[in-house]
Amino acid sequence: MENIELERIASQVRRDILRMVAGVQSGHPGGSLGCADFLTLLYFHEMNHQNDPFSMDGKGEDLFFLSNGHISPVWYSVLSRSGYFPVKELGSFRKLGSRLQGHPSTDKKLPGVRMASGSLGQGLSVAIGAAASKKLNGDHSLVYTLHGDGELQEGQIWEAAMYAAAKKVDNLIATIDYNGRQIDGDVDDVLSLGNLRAKWEAFGWHCLEMDGHDMQEMKDTLGKARALCGHSKPVVILMKTEMGMGVDFMMGTHKWHGSPPNEEQLAQGLSQLSETLGDY
Amino acid sequence: MRDFEVLGNKDTRSGFGAGLLELGQKNDQVLALCADLIGSLKMGDFQKAFPERFFQIGIAEANMMGIAAGMTIGGKIPFTGTFANFSTGRVYDQIRQSIAYSNKNVKICASHAGLTLGEDGATHQILEDIGMMKMLPNMTVVVPADYNQTKQATMAIAEHQGPVYLRFGRPVMPIFVPENATFEIGKADVLTEGKDVTIVACGHLVWKSIEAARELEEEGISVELINMHTIKPLDEQTLLKSLAKTGCVVTAEEHMMHGGLGDSVAQVITQNQLVPQEYVAVHDKFGESGTPMELMSKYGIDTPDIVLAAKKAIARKKG
Fold it and tell me: Do B141 and B252 lie in a common domain?
């Protein structure tokens, strides 16, 4: 898909995110806006996947696991916009009885979600398991994950990182949303990750970097990542993003990590994003 | 009371190892994961027979639970193996989110449960695991009584779709469940029928309860003994039928009094027909180093404790 078309979809995804969190006055817009371009690219261009019927086992499909489950709005928007469930269902986000739980779950059987996430640090292990299952099944498709940078403070991530390298899990591409911010402030102030690239490389991973708002650069980097797969090492991409991307007053701060806009702020935000596919 | 023939003496963990091996031969979707305790968990035979389906995770139990959860996507049936302490308390949140809430077909197999882990002491002697696991929605909790039953249970849980906690132990204990017995999840075994008191036990305490029942019978007390190998779902029907006959109950388990088999039984009693209940369990204490049998005696979960509890329960019934 052309970059311009992907960007048009991402604009609609950002509108969905703002309207979802504003509609229920709850949820996490900042990181969701920051990952809108990446998830749009994954679902509309990169991954080989199937939405109808949705298969939990995903045999023969590329799989995606959202480890930082709090950015569920962006995932739900992309899933619905790519045909996993009706777009109008986005309006039920976080409401009683909804399949769109605050954090993703399999409990309500929302198509596209294969694992609950929200309690941080668990998605890389899960992805390693799914990748192992693919190898045993002779399935050559790939497993993708997304993690927050703050999430890397969880120890389980590094258990999984050590394992994936030692056991040559080479059908896995992990991406880090490297926006430098977490709920209490800048990651460097809360608990610095130090030299993150050096850490991943020391753990035995191929480490790539990309701008998470440049479609062409992401296409090129993901292409490189795929080419590195199958060569005995796992691949991680440090994806530089801006929390709140696309809405000027939400950028440059951690304050919109988990706060919804009010009515006036919503209107202001929506005025900065084109309605390209029609609001839900 | 019927006689119980001792068919041999083995540890329940060896029953797990034997069951896992046989399962591996029968079902190629079965995988085994271990966190650096292959010998202790008796997983070596599976590892040798099916190296491509065996995963040495290293000392990283949280990662093991997550990997196991992920493996179910694609149709695999992963069995995780480590000590009960590291299978539950250490990884509760991983089990809660990635296995129980996500309803994944993972079999959490836990050895060295309870005091009978012995000399390693309280850091490793978990007595809270049944409670933690039974509180999780979607989770089935199985505590088999001897080697044969552990082998049978290991094979049976592979046929059950959904997460299971299988708890077994370290010490060598008498085998009394026939080799060809059928194991059905959620269906208790009435080992012997009686009229004065019901003893409901699980795990190693089933054998101790057989010993207690023999002693009680010599004193003219008739015991109905139930091997409640599945704590969740609890076989309420068998329990209530027995209590209607005997009118009092002793629960016996190698677990903390709070949250174990006894509390599951108490919930059934309070919601149906009130009868006196005595707990044989550990009373709000951590264990310590010692031999398995010394510890069972010191912490009040041995044969004489069951005998005493049965007499108390009967006395309370009579008012």
Answer: no
